[in-house]
Write a structure and sequence with these properties.
Length: 151
């Protein structure tokens, strides 16, 4: 079945089954491998992308549920004001270790700042609680979000 989706401002036509997860379409059909597969069950956050600006788990989001919504991935987040600030702060704070979780972390953090420019520690913990980092970079993740929020 053919679907037309908008990813990072570009339109793509893809021919896949309707129940195909968006994560599979991004990685295997469109070759956008920045979004990661972790658990496949909405438990780790590695696959987080934005749908109309809100973070979603692309591993459990079927392609036929997207409709005309705009998708933003890690490949396009630098073009948003909050995404650019989050990415710079993560470099400044040397947040990543292995890096595997970081795409999803950046997507959740940038969505948080877009909706809440001055998040408290509790706001950050709440927004980021679904993004698991096996390397334990949580302290620096929070520091980077606060730096990005400070501008
Ligand atoms: S791969 Fe989607 S939440 Fe883990
Ligand atoms: S940096 Fe390694 S899992 Fe988060």
């Amino acid at each position: 079945m053919s679907f037309t989706i908008n990813v990072n401002g570009s339109t793509h036509s893809v021919d896949v089954d309707g129940d195909t997860p968006l994560l599979w379409v991004l990685r295997d059909v469109l070759g956008m491998t920045g979004t990661k597969f972790g658990c496949g069950m909405a438990l780790c956050g590695a696959c987080t992308v934005h749908l109309d600006g809100s973070p979603i788990r692309s591993c459990i989001t079927s392609i036929d549920s997207i409709g005309g919504s705009s998708i933003t991935t890690i490949e396009g987040i630098h073009a948003t004001a909050t995404g650019a600030r989050i990415q710079k702060a993560r470099i400044d704070r040397e947040v990543p270790q292995c890096g595997y979780c970081q795409s999803g972390q950046i997507m959740s953090a940038s969505a948080l700042l877009a909706s809440n420019p001055s998040p408290t520690d509790a706001d950050i913990d709440d927004a980021m609680s679904g993004n698991i980092c096996r390397c334990g970079t949580y302290v620096r993740i929070r520091q980077a979000i606060k730096q990005a929020a400070a501008g």
